[in-house]
Amino acid sequence: MTTVLRQQQYDGRNESSFARSAEGRSSSTLSSSTIIPSSLPTLSSTVSAITPTPQHAQNNPPCTAQVNDIVTLDVQLQPENGFVPESLFDTSGRVSFVLGWGNYLPGLHSLVEGTSVGSQVANVSIDAGYGSSNPSLVFKLPKSHPVFRRRDQSSSSSSSFSHQQQQHQVGDAIRLNDKIQVHIKEIMEDEGMIVVDGNHPLAGSSYSCSFRVLDIQPMPSTQHESPSVPSSSLSQTQPQPQPHPTSRYQVATWAMGCFWGGELAFMRQDGVVGTKVGYTQGITPDPTYEQVSQGTTQHREAVMVVYDTTLVSYDDLVRLYMKRLSITSSPYFKIPLIPDEDGVDSHPQYRHGIYFHNEEQRRIAHAAVAGNNNQYQVELRMASAFYDAEPYHQQYLLKGGQSARKNAKETIRCFG
After folding, report:
1. Which residue of 82, 227, 403, 406 is most buried, as measured by CB atoms within 10 A?
2. How far apart are CA 65 and CA 321, in angstroms?
3. Nearest residue to 261 (alpha-carbon basis) of 250, 275, 249, 247
4. Which residues contact 148 (CB under 8 A, 6 or more apart)?
5. How many Cβ atoms are within 10 Å of 80's Cβ, its own excluded?
6. pTM for this one?
7. DSSP 3-state of 324
């Protein structure tokens, strides 16, 4: 008998059929399920200011997988009970990810924690990310309810309905009060009632999960400085970076406007094993999104990327970064990134920046910025303290139904 692992639910949904809410940035629904919950309640808590200290020496791989370790699996996820998923992440073959950082399903993270190289798991049922069905979100409405009547298109009033009954079928989506989306589950003709369901249509879906642990490696050091380090521009003397570690994994930090779209672009890159969004280059410890948005903390929205140097080079990542800026820096989407006439930087949150962690990264970034005459107004600084953004920001577009599969080509629907 297999074990079904259920994960913490997460409130809200955005404009896609299974998207998540970001505190008022999108409409709410009755469903409290999520594609990939942004918190992992079964895993150990992580520190907001990312200063990973490897639990083992760099040349001594961990004995068992713990949070912040980089794990590599040969994995197979098979949908169960007729569940037909969208291709949002890689479900078979060799995958690598930072344990506890999101990416892939929380149920997979939970199964991996505590395993060792060579460990195998076979045919364990894990939640597909939509949560279990909540019976309290299933209820009856009379067929005469205004929500089932055809809206009177000739009236400007949003509450005006005709007396004509609109024909509905099981599975149809309707909105209650023009805000809350539900689905018709059953039409009870004899009773004159319609059963509606506020759960996500895929609530209760699951995967059969099998994997073998191929490798476990510690997180490389981020080697950041104090957040109070003075600013440095392209023309100023740069502080001397520390030598990069011997691990094949390295860390890179980028600011490219809104961090949602930038994170998804890096998630799709082969060789990237972990991403998270947060705030860096500011003057206030552990800021909130609201504080950063006010501009007083001087933080930039940033994406931290952990990558495998044997699969992708820093040059490749810089090219991806510049390509993303070429899209989001078009005149239509551009946010002012230079001080106004009074010398006030009114949008420090959305400044562009490459924050290098070692001398090689500094050299490559400097050459790339100088090569295009810094047309995207990219600041170059040594990496400083990085504070995690709130959980609902992490992997936001993946949770909203946009693919994070490696080498996915679908347009990223977020121009931040």
Report:
1. 227
2. 31
3. 275
4. 141, 165, 166, 168, 174, 194
5. 17
6. 0.72
7. helix
195 strand-pairing partners:
140, 186
Alpha-helical (H) ranges within 91-149 are 106-112
In angstroms, the Cα distances linking 333 to 33, 63, 259, 377, 414 are 32, 48, 14, 15, 10
Q: How confident is the model at residue 171 (pLDDT cuts 50, 70, 90)?
A: confident
Q: Which regions of 56-159 does DSSP assign to beta strands (E)?
A: 70-79, 92-98, 120-127, 138-142, 149-151
Structure-token pair, residue 108: 């997979």
One-letter identity of residue 288: T
Say whether 414 is catalytic: no
Q: Which residue has 């940033």 as its token pair?
A: 302
CA distance 61 to 198: 46
Eight-state DSSP code of residue 412: P
Residue for token digits 């009970």? 81
- Residue 34 to residue 18: CA distance in whole angstroms: 7
Q: Render pLDDT for 282-326 as a digit per residue (tens, 0 to 9).
A: 999 999 999 999 999 999 999 999 999 999 999 999 999 999 998
**Which residue among the candidates 63, 209, 258, 414 is catalytic per the annotation?**
258
- Residue pair 252/220 in contact (Cβ under 8 Å)? The answer is no
**Rounded Cα gap, residues 135 and 137, in angstroms:** 5
Please provide residue 408's backbone torsions phi and psi, each rounded to the nearest 5 degrees: -60, 145
List all residues 6 or more positions away from 13 whose beta carbon is below 8 Å from its beta carbon.
Answer: 19, 20, 21, 26, 27, 28, 29, 31, 181, 200
Residues in the chain, total: 416
Q: How many angstroms separate the most distant Cα atoms in the chain?
A: 81
* Residue of higher predicted confidence among 134 and 312: 312
* 198-218 per-position pLDDT tens digit: 888 888 899 999 999 999 999
